[in-house]
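> forwarded from #structure-qc
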């Protein structure tokens, strides 16, 4: 395939692999990116592209916050097609418990320097007039934003190739070997190190990885500019996204720059086929119409599914494999891989080059899995 020996082979040109390739190339490493399909065609194409600070744990907060700052730093140079939109998030409280949760979240974020604004019922209705009456309020996080992930992955690949990285497209890695990878056609590519960033397919290349597929559905509508102005998420979403039950849906809707509405979301473990499950879509849309009654009159254009790569502790695996020298992992980003891709790349390259990183790497090291229980 190539007689050259690279410093690094990056497996997968999803948003995570693309970010890692760009960071490796920027650090002066010679890079080969091997992608079985197209750039950003996996979970990256299926995701919502919400760049969101989250607070499920201190480690999750640190990674999402740091990565969001990195996205903000490049926002001016992102090409138009990445559709960066600083729309902010509103976390919606439908009952007293969710209002308590909104206040807890508000304190957590403001204690750590994230700008927030508590909304009462009236200010919520003013901010989003199409929400149903009777909601109690919410929390606005103005620093959250939205991008179109496949084009963001392409932008990162372009950054990599501009620094000399080589892209091998439509070529699948069959297995990772000492000193490189063997491709499905039997040929090999040699490198000093290999990064497995194959998303939900990463366990197929590295046996024993605690990464499971978590299926999600999304629906996109026709163009209805200004129907909503923020990414709107029910606070009940936290219950569904961050527990590890078999199946859940929650209200989560995004305004696209095109005027379209991207409606999510669902989570399912133990389902490996990618077909659209109409019963899940019905539940998801039913939930969305409870919050935005006018949605029922709008037309949807397309529904699709994708697979998040989930770890048991809801944190990604970033760093060296515990047993295979020169194999690094950058996988397991579940529902936050678009957000956390840039920080992942910084932490990965920091470890490869033995450089200090802006946030500690320890919570994301694959070595922690040696002590972790298996998936619930
Ligand atoms: C419904 C849904 C909504 C989401 N919403 C958000 C959101 O709003 N915000 C957010 O931050 N995240 C979100 N996510 C999560 C996000 O999409 C993922 O975490 C992220 O895309 C993972 O990127 P990745 O590069 O690790 O994986 P992928 O994008 O899946 O990329 C892996 C790549 O590896 C390639 N590959 C696999 N096997 C091989 C092989 N053997 N050889 C060569 N190449 C191979 C694949 O073709 C693929 O292109 C969402 C996910 C879903 C499913």
């Amino acid at each position: 395939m190539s007689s050259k020996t690279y410093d690094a082979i990056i497996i997968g040109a999803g948003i995570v692999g693309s970010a890692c390739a760009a960071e490796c190339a920027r650090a002066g490493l010679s890079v080969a990116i091997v992608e079985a399909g197209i750039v950003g065609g996996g979970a990256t194409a299926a995701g919502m592209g919400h760049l969101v600070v989250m607070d499920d744990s201190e480690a999750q907060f640190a990674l999402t916050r740091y990565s969001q700052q990195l996205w903000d730093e490049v926002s001016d140079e992102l090409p138009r097609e990445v559709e960066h939109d600083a729309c902010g998030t509103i976390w919606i409280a439908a009952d007293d418990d969710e209002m308590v949760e909104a206040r807890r979240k508000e304190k957590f974020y403001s204690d750590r320097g994230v700008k927030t604004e508590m909304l009462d019922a009236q200010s919520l209705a003013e901010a989003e007039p199409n929400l149903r009456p009777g909601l109690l309020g919410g929390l606005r996080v103005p620093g959250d934003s939205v991008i179109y992930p496949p084009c963001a992955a392409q932008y990162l690949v372009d950054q990599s190739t501009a620094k000399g990285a080589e892209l091998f497209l439509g070529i699948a890695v069959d297995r990772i070997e000492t000193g490189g990878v063997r491709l499905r056609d039997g040929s090999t590519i040699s490198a000093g190190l290999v990064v497995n960033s194959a998303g939900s397919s990463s366990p197929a290349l590295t046996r024993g990885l605690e990464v499971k597929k978590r299926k999600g559905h999304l629906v996109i509508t026709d163009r209805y500019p200004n129907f909503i102005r923020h990414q709107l998420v029910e606070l009940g979403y936290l219950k569904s996204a961050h527990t590890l039950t078999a199946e859940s849906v929650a209200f989560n809707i995004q305004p696209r720059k095109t005027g379209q509405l991207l409606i999510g979301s669902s989570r399912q473990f133990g389902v490996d086929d990618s077909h659209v499950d109409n019963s899940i879509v019905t539940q998801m849309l039913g939930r969305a119409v409870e919050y935005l009654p006018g949605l029922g009159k709008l037309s949807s254009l397309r529904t699709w599914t994708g697979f998040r790569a989930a770890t048991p502790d809801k944190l990604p695996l970033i760093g060296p494999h515990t047993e295979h020298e020169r194999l690094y992992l950058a996988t397991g980003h579940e529902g936050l891989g678009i957000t956390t891709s840039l920080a992942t790349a910084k932490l990965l390259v920091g470890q490869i080059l033995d450089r200090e990183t802006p946030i500690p790497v320890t919570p994301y090291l694959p070595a922690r899995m040696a002590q972790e229980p298996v998936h619930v």
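QC bot note: The chain has ten helices and 18 strands. The chain has a mean pLDDT of 95.
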